[in-house]
Amino acid sequence: MSPPIRVLIAPVTPLQQNCTIVWSASTKSAAVIDPGGETDRILEALRQNGLTLEKIWVTHGHLDHAGAAAALQEATGAPIEGPHPDDAFWIDDIATSGAKWGMPEARSFKPDRWLHDGDRVTLGDTEFEVYHCPGHTPGHVVFFHREARFAQVGDVLFQGSIGRTDFPRGNHADLIASITDKLWPLGDDVTFVPGHGPTSTFGQERRSNPFVADGVLARP
Questions:
Q1: Nearby residues of 107 by Cβ (< 8 Å), 6 or more positions away
Q2: Region of 118 on the Ramachandran plot (φ > 0 left; ψ -120 to 50 alpha; else beta)
Q3: Which domain holds residue 56?
Q4: Residue range 64-79, pLDDT digits in tens
Q5: Assigned domain for 199 exists
Q6: Is 66 contained in some domain?
Q7: What is the pLDDT of residues 7-63, one digit of tens each?
Q8: Total count of domains within the chain
Q9: What is the mean pLDDT of residues 185-198?
């Protein structure tokens, strides 16, 4: 049976953030997750794949993940959903951060819908679950498609690493709890796209990640 969704990763910004386009295989309705920059490139990817942008989803308010959300919304009219409202202060700081990091086109925005733990977001005829996973930022969320065994986890977890917690309102203990209490129960077979770098599976990270592998966390 063919998967219900398709996924395309388009790294953007000088920080090579994994902007992710997901779409319903049957309706070609698409969501762009974390449009950090390079709006024209994102629009071209949608066009080349014959996709209609239905939603803009944001995992957290950092510049490289959300800096182009306003411009993408202006170009398409798609509503912005996410992150959790605890990241509002990060979104408000996007323009200032953009000037500092050489991305002057980045702008703040107001989401059409803030997201909370347990919410659902729809895309065409399919649905994603929302998990609030604080630690890297206080309002970070993760998007999970249960049938496809797929997650976009932003900067919570990476192949072989975890998100930084030295930013304002970051919290290492919260991050570890988000990974072990929210992500691991979804299943070892879940493939995830991180905010940066290559994809992996939860099972691989439970076996080998030097920060959150089962053997590491079990040590006294």
A1: 67, 70, 71, 94, 95, 98
A2: left
A3: 5-215
A4: 999 999 999 999 999 9
A5: yes
A6: yes
A7: 999 999 998 999 999 999 999 999 999 999 999 999 999 999 999 999 999 999 999
A8: 1
A9: 98
CA distances from 8 to 169, 170, 174 (A): 31, 29, 30
Residue 220 lies inside a defined structural domain of this protein:
no
Among all chains, which residue has been given the structure tokens 């992710």? 20
**In the block, which residue shows the tokens 């970051």?**
170
Instruction: With respect to residue 139, please indicate whether it lies within any of the assigned structural domains.
Output: yes
Query: What is the CATH number for 69?
Result: 3.60.15.10
The three state secondary structure string of the chain is CCCCEEEEEEEECCCCEEEEEEEECCCCEEEEECCCCCHHHHHHHHHHCCCEEEEEECCCCCHHHHCCHHHHHHHHCCCEECCCHHHHHHHHCHHHHHHHCCCCCCCCCCCCECCCCCCEEEECCEEEEEEECCCCCCCCEEEEECCCCEEEEECCEECCEECCCCCCCCCHHHHHHHHHHHHHHHCCCCEEEECECCCEEHHHHHHHCCCCCHHHHCCC
